[in-house]
Design brief:
By secondary structure, this protein is α/β, with parallel strands linked by helices. Helices cover about 35% and strands about 15% of the residues. A 5-stranded parallel β-sheet has the order 1-5-4-2-3.
């Protein structure tokens, strides 16, 4: 079963000063339309991760013990990436259930939808 956090839990984490990485695995055209503005967000499309594997991970996400939350549009790609990272030894990786679409609808409508 994929480890997940809710968009409400993500909002709490974003409101905190806690260190973590929010890995956005959507494609660049998606991020250009809708995004969460926070310094802890790092965009790395799933397509690039699929091509290059772990070497495509940004430095901040390479620590297998770091708190890592994975975000996509609806939660399917993020669940796949979360499962893959967990299978590679990441211990604190969680998919954001419902993705940025659910976040925009429940937490911050100004983020927008597509």
């Amino acid at each position: 079963m994929t480890p997940e956090i809710t968009v409400a839990e993500l909002a709490e984490k974003l409101a905190s000063a806690d260190p973590f990485v929010l890995l956005d695995v959507r494609e660049p055209w998606e991020v250009a339309r809708v995004k969460i503005n926070d310094a802890r967000v790092i965009v790395k499309p799933m397509s690039e991760l699929a091509q290059r594997g772990l070497e495509a991970l940004p430095d901040a996400a390479r620590d297998s013990d770091a708190n890592l939350y994975v975000l996509c549009h609806h939660g399917v790609r993020s669940a796949n990436v979360t499962d893959w990272l967990a299978s590679q030894g990441w211990t604190n990786v969680f998919s954001v259930a419902g993705g940025i679409d659910d976040y925009a609808q429940r937490i911050d409508r100004e983020v927008g939808t597509y």
